[in-house]
Amino acid sequence: MATNRVYEWVDERTGIKPALDYVLYRRxxxxxxxxxxxxxxxxxxxxxxxxxxxxxxxxxxxSNAPVNIMVNGQPFVSTEALESVRHLTTSVPLxxxxxxxxxxxxxxxxxxxxxHMLHSFFCGSYKYxxxxxxxxxxxxxxxxxxxxxxxxxxxxxxxxxxxxxVGINIGGSAPLAGPIVADVLRxxxxxxxxxxxxxxxxxxxxxxxxxxxxxxxxxxxxxKIGISGTPAYKEQISGEYFDSVGKSSKKGGRxxxxxxxxxxxxxxxxxxxxxIALTFFVPVGNTNPADPNNGVDSVSGQRFDPKPEWYFxxxxxxxxxxxSINIGPLSLPSAAIGGIIIPTVVILALFLAPxxxxxxxxxxxxxxxxxxxxxxxxxxxxxxxxxxxxxxxSDNIEESWQKANIQLAPAAVAGGAATGxxxxxxxxxxxxxxxxxxxxxxxxxDQAAVQAGLxxxxxxxxSGCHLQNGNAAGGPGPILKGDPIAKSAAAIKDQxxxxxxxxxxxxxxxxxxxxxxxxxxxxxLSLNSGGN
Amino acid sequence: MALTxxxxxxxxxxxxxxxxxxxxxxxxxGIYGIGAAITAGLAVPxxxxxxxxxxxxxxxxxxxxGNVADFANATTPKPVTYNYGYTDEFKQVNGSAxxxxxxxxxxxxxxxxxxVLSNIxxxxxxxxQWNGTDAFxxxxxxxxxxxxxxxxxxxxTKPLNxxxxxxxxxxxxxxxxxxxx
Lengths: 532, 181
Prior knowledge:
The complex is a heterodimer. By secondary structure, chain A is mainly alpha-helical. Chain A has helices spanning 2-14, 16-24, 38-59, 80-90, 95-122, 131-153, 158-172, 178-186, 193-225, 241-250, 256-281, 313-321, 334-351, 353-356, 368-393, 396-403, 410-413, 424-431, 447-459, 462-466, 489-499, 514-528, and strands at 27-28, 66-71, 74-79, 254-255, 325-327, 330-332. In chain A, the strands form three sheets. A two-stranded antiparallel ribbon of chain A has the order 1-4. In chain A, strands 2-3 form a two-stranded antiparallel ribbon. Chain A is globular. Chain A starts with a helix and ends with a helix. Helices cover 25% and strands 30% of the residues of chain B. Chain B is built from three helices and eleven strands; from the N terminus they run ααβαββββββββββ. Classes of the chains: A mainly alpha, B alpha+beta. Chains A and B meet through α7, α8, α12, α13 and α16 of A and α2, β2, β3 and β5 of B.
């Protein structure tokens, strides 16, 4: 066998065979069940994130530099970051897959890693001799949360912007070091270009490096010490390393390859299949461009109520209800208590679990305090999340008004009295002056025909693929602004009548009349006669 | 190479009383010293670069909120969306922001006659909304503020921030990047 000869050639020069044999044929305790696949499932999700992340980075631009876009014929300012994300999601072949993998992979990561942590906790796996494996694992959990936080900002849409604004301000509420932490994270006093590049560097360089190192350490320790296995009710760890490892782990078990790894492979495959299914059935979208200063969605004109991703909702709800403390000279605002002090204590306690719980017992029912505390946190976090979902069902700001017993002037209810943007028309009027020269293009074109063309563009279904205005990314069809064909009326008509290729169909005159096609062409020309 | 030979080469079998031990110790400390110098040479500029934003102050930017005359009798806070532009890093960024201008007396004309309230919630930074009569509410965690910016309902503990306004040739001006930390 050629492969055998290659393997022997490599082995002769590296001595890899004994090492591989050690890893593959080590004995795994018979009590290792399907729950123990959660670790390798986490590794699989990390690989999904690494691969999809690398390819996302090829299409993403970490810049808040303004980009002029058109939505429903109205000019708006977006950013290179958001438009690059939209472009790679909607126009780059398979871009929606890469984006979907990364988005749903991030969700899967949080779920799988948390379950893995809970399983290890309830099995008492953090006890001697696996304390170090646990410490490294808690760091990995923190890195996952760091990935979520830094990755969330990158699309630079409204949701991203406000989540980061709140997240950084939580850091800023920390006693003493808070303001420094916030400035360092933001790269300055305001959320802007420097924040985006900093978060990008942390997300794609610093965290992946740390994560890979710590995963390596975690795996090394698992192979070195052996897997703990599901504890029997009376099982106790012994002070002697080889008693605990030797008896339960190294002897009498089955070989890792192929008996354990087949279970890992099955679960990893199921996780990947779930990510693929979500990618296929639930496309990932974006909210409108970040409009930092008004709290109003610049495109829809509706007030934008910031809410975090579902796995941070418990913290969101917690921050609403946690009280401030004022006892004598001690004055702690609620943001510091709920956002910094309590989470820090909880994470420290989790990290120090092997130090705090030193009993030799491993079975969860034999450790009522440790298990009870963890169950309390599970109930609290699930409860807060459910509460947040229930509260989100009603309008968030309505709740604020009601709590304070405030009557609303009618205009405020429409969502945006503050900016004079009660309607979408009002909103565009309010924000357009700030857009830096994104005036509607085409001074020499008949504006009435342009508007009529826009209507026909929408009513004839063109906007189904080229979005409402043929200009913003978001549909399967190309962006028509800047498209070479869309720069000549004759070419446009030729394309629609004769040259369209699948998935676009050819439109004969009985479907779109010559007069209508003229107007549509005029509208498309208006997109392309602007100065940019 | 056998272990004994390695030890011989590395002088590891030399007894501590041997005069050459001084040389070995010197070399050991030399390695530590050079290692520390390399680490510091990399880490000091890197860390300095990373935390520098905490030391540099806010940029000085001026933005025109509107005509003083328009606010002279605004005895309840008047929401104003104004435009500004500034250089973010190396990019020109144009934006619009909302402040609430409040004349503290009838016929206000001087900067100190006005309260220019920020719309950024002092709890965790979401944009508060004005109810049109007497209060601001935050869409995030439920803080509510009175018309003068003071806290009516938590979790916020600090009143809405006030910009240091100036008046130049009949225009009310602020620094949209003013830091309130």
